[in-house]
Design a protein that fits this description.
The chain has 355 residues and is α+β, with helices and mostly antiparallel strands. It is 28% helix and 15% strand. The protein folds into 3 domains: 48 residues, no CATH class; 44 residues; 195 residues, Sandwich (Immunoglobulin-like), CATH 2.60.40.1660. The strands form 2 sheets. It has a 4-stranded antiparallel β-sheet with strand order 1-3-6-5. Strands 2-8-7-4 form a 4-stranded mixed β-sheet, covered by helices on one side. One of its GO terms (biological process) is intracellular potassium ion homeostasis.
Length: 355
């Protein structure tokens, strides 16, 4: 293909630069004259020269006239050529040689191969990183216990929470729809403490820790709902809200392995000048040590925390006045006065009862 194109190009160039003095007929060549010679003959009055052929003597001296322009000369030469078939015209600028095409294909193939190598490198690299990450995570998980956290130094003492779960308790005692949300919350919370449910659990020694380190399945000590008496919701389904003497249930957060020293109990005080009467259930608000320690939700699945219910005995003068109450766990080594963590060992809530 390349050789044929080069041959056609050479023939085309030779045709462009062929001499214009070729005679129309015969194989004899006409005598050639230069421009100065023709001018001298004309000045001497001997023009045309006597040795010109007869078929062109009657005409003026022929000159190779070529039109100026884009394709004038080519068309003129094609007309003089007569019936001779013209050379095929080729626009060489649009023809790419096979060698150039092969070179481009080689470059493309090389680039694709290099891209594949790059992709393969990054695939192997990130696969190695993912494998290293999975390996380190697996090694770390082998050092952890499923039941007991390895590091729990940041929770040496538990916090206190209240139910109903609201820091501000405000209601009108004359409108049951106004405090139904609180009583319904308490009923739902105490379902696991129903006597029928707690009777399935074990009776434990009062005042003694229930150590079960060697037991694969830990037993659960009973804490019956009836121990809360007036705040149990059994005798009074309104938990004292209808009388304007609401019950608040306090529980201590679970901490695995916690064994409080002493005899812990809940003590609540109102932030006001006069003393606010408060009733505790169970008596004196004690948290019995038989519910400690806690072994985690996997081995201690049915465990329930001990509860303390406090009933605010508000007088008629206390109505329509917001009461701020703070409850603390006392009588043990549990912290309750950390200024950086005000929820550690204590809880504060506000109660507003209106008529």
């Amino acid at each position: 293909m390349t050789t044929i194109a080069k041959l056609l190009l050479a023939l085309f160039i030779l045709e462009l630069f062929q001499p214009c003095q070729t005679l129309r007929g015969g194989n004899n060549l006409a005598p050639s004259y230069t421009r100065d010679a023709l001018l001298a003959l004309r000045a001497a009055g001997s023009f045309p020269p006597p040795n010109l052929p007869e078929d062109i003597r009657s005409t003026a001296p022929r000159r190779c006239l070529r039109r100026r322009g884009r394709r004038g000369g080519v068309r003129q030469r094609l007309r003089r050529r007569g019936n001779r078939p013209p050379l095929p015209s080729m626009i060489l600028s649009n023809v790419r040689s096979l060698r150039r095409k092969m070179e481009e294909l080689r470059i493309i193939a090389t680039a694709c191969f290099e891209y594949r190598l790059i992709l393969l490198f990054y695939f192997v690299f990130y696969a190695f990183l993912a494998g290293m990450f999975c390996l380190t995570m697996w090694v770390m998980l082998q050092t952890l216990d499923e039941n007991i956290p390895t590091y729990q130094d940041r929770v040496p003492s538990p916090g206190l929470v209240i139910r109903p779960h609201a820091a501000d308790i405000s209601f009108n005692r004359s409108d049951p729809t106004n405090y139904n949300q609180y009583t319904q919350h308490l009923h739902n919370f105490l379902q696991n403490y129903n006597d029928s449910v707690q009777e399935r659990n074990d009776l434990c020694l009062v005042g003694e820790y229930t150590d079960q380190d060697a037991e694969p399945v830990k037993k659960v000590c009973q804490f019956k709902r009836s121990l809360l008496r007036q705040c149990s919701g059994l005798s009074d389904s309104s938990f004292g809200y209808a009388e304007g003497k609401p019950c608040i249930i306090i529980k201590m957060n679970r901490v695995i392995g916690l064994k409080p020293q002493g005899d812990p109990f809940i003590n609540c005080t109102a932030k006001r000048n006069s003393l606010l009467q408060i009733r505790y259930f169970p008596s004196e608000g004690r948290l019995d040590k038989m519910f400690f320690p806690y072994y985690g939700k996997n081995t201690h699945a049915d465990y329930v925390q001990p509860l303390v219910a406090v009933q605010l005995l508000l007088s008629k003068e206390d109505l329509n006045v917001e009461q701020t109450v703070e409850c603390r766990v006392e009588g043990s080594n549990l912290r309750n006065n950390d200024e950086r963590d005000k929820a550690l060992g204590r809880v504060t809530f506000r109660v507003l009862v209106s008529e």
